[in-house]
């Protein structure tokens, strides 16, 4: 399959693609120093770690889930490779078998306690483990290497962490990994459901950019950057081709998915926000995860939830672009703090009667409400230019049929 997108392993090409070196660029530089994607990339791990580590033992953070590559325990294989550099590798196992693990204060504290004194931290596992590793290595101030084990989420290549704070999923600034290793043999042997979920995660490229562009047009977010979106959207036709083979032992398809996933994560970090590929569809998934965590039950796979939500959001975009009368926006007043605070309380009271979850959500929503009031004066110009904006939004919001086709094929 020919590559239409930038090679994420060529970080200088990534920088050029988004104009990071141009005068006046407001984008954030890439903190990753090395990205290796290949059929035997795991063999490169010792050299990668050796080039980054400081004095002290090597620590591995992982959960209790068994991960195999060609019939061998992948976590043990990583530990054996790294033991050649530093005998006595520390393996920190988080969570309990059969129980969901969350990137919360307890898990991060356990990772920090286990890795204290290490010269490099390596994570092997899911997006949750990756986020715990980001925060633990940030707090410890040590180099951090990520071993990606499935094409499931884009957390492996960005500088943010999705943390559970007062029961609320919050995407927080964290740190870039120093290196990312994506072994296609390991990814190929991942449970098929995980790689199919990754197609759902990537399906957000059909909806989230439109959310970001609309926020920009309304004056709610002035950071919209076409080149940041194009970093991963240039591969949308390749996603269509690779999706039907997401659960197959097909290195070409897995490489395509891994590269697009990596680019989407890089885009978030470069933009300094989740908006490029995280919009309404991700909000829905996080709410489902919050409900599951609060009720003590397993959540669905994040990417799978994002994919289903992306289809619903695409349907909404189809309807908005076909039927919205923008003059109605001028006639609709901005609701009061009291009204929206009451709605927030009502929305979360059934899930958390203590009110902590509602308080956490309100603290973030209120900022948007204030900004909406501040930008209200510019609404007339947006309404007058709606025709042109609508046509532009059609280029960012794919028809629901397109989203359904990608999801249905995986």
Strand runs, count: 10
Shape: globular
Low-confidence spans: none
Please outline the major beta sheet: 6 strands, parallel
User: Hey, roughly how much beta strand do the residues contain?
Assistant: 5-15%
Oligomeric organization of the protein chains: single chain
Class per helix and strand makeup:
alpha/beta
What portion of residues is helical?
A: 40-55%
Roughly how many Å is the radius of gyration? 21 Å
Helix and strand succession?
HEHEEEHEHEHEEEEHHHHHHHHHHHHHH
Cα distance spanning the termini: 17 Å
- How confident overall, as mean pLDDT? 94
In short:
The protein is α/β, with parallel strands linked by helices. The chain has helices spanning about 10-20, 45-50, 75-85, 105-115, 125-140, 185-190, 190-200, 210-215, 225-235, 235-240, 250-270, 280-295, 300-325, 325-330, 335-350, 355-375, 380-385, 385-395, 400-410, and strands spanning about 35-40, 60-65, 70, 70-75, 90-95, 120-125, 145-150, 160-165, 170-175, 180-185.
What's the topology here?
Layout: H1 11-18, E1 34-38, H2 45-50, E2 58-63, E3 68-69, E4 72-73, H3 74-83, E5 90-94, H4 105-115, E6 120-125, H5 127-140, E7 144-148, E8 160-165, E9 168-173, E10 179-183, H6 184-188, H7 192-202, H8 208-217, H9 226-233, H10 236-242, H11 251-271, H12 280-295, H13 302-323, H14 327-331, H15 337-349, H16 356-374, H17 379-384, H18 386-396, H19 400-409
Parallel strand pairs: 1-10, 2-5, 2-6, 6-7, 7-10
Antiparallel strand pairs: 3-4, 8-9
């Amino acid at each position: 399959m020919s590559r239409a997108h930038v090679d994420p392993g060529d970080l200088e090409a990534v920088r050029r693609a988004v104009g990071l070196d141009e005068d006046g660029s407001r984008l954030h530089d890439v903190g990753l120093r090395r990205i290796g994607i290949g059929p035997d990339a795991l063999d490169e791990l010792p050299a990668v770690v050796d080039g980054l580590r400081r004095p002290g033992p090597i620590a591995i953070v992982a959960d209790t889930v068994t991960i195999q590559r060609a019939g061998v325990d992948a976590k043990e294989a990583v530990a054996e490779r790294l033991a050649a550099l530093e005998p006595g590798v520390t393996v920190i196992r988080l969570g309990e078998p059969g129980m969901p693990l969350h990137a919360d204060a307890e898990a991060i504290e356990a990772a920090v306690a286990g890795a204290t004194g290490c010269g490099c931290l390596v994570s092997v596992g899911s997006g949750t483990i990756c986020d715990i590793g980001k925060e633990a290595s940030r707090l410890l101030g040590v180099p951090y290497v990520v071993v990606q084990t499935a094409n499931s989420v884009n957390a492996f290549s960005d500088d943010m962490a999705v943390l559970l704070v007062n029961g609320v999923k919050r995407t927080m600034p964290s740190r870039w990994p120093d290196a990312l290793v994506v072994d296609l043999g390991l990814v190929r042997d991942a449970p098929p459901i995980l790689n199919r979920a990754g197609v759902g995660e990537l399906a957000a490229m059909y909806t989230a950019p439109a959310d970001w562009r609309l926020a920009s047009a309304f004056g709610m977010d002035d950071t919209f950057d076409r080149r940041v979106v194009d970093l991963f959207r240039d591969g949308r036709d390749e996603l269509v081709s690779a999706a039907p083979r997401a659960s197959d032992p097909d290195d070409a398809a897995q490489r395509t998915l891994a590269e697009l996933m990596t680019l989407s994560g890089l885009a978030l970090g470069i933009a300094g926000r989740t908006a490029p590929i995280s919009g309404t569809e991700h909000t829905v998934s996080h709410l489902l995860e919050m409900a599951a965590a609060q009720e003590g039950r397993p959540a669905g796979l994040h990417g799978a939830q994002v994919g289903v939500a992306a289809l619903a959001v695409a349907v909404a975009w189809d309807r908005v672009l076909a039927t919205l009368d923008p003059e109605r926006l001028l006639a609709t007043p901005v609701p009061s703090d009291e009204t929206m605070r009451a709605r927030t309380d009502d929305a979360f009271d059934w899930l958390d009667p203590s009110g902590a979850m509602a308080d956490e959500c309100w603290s973030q929503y209120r900022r948007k409400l204030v900004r909406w009031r501040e930008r209200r004066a510019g609404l007339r110009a947006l309404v007058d230019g709606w025709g042109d904006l609508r046509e532009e939004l059609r280029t960012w919001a794919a028809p629901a049929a397109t989203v359904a086709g990608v999801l249905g094929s995986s």
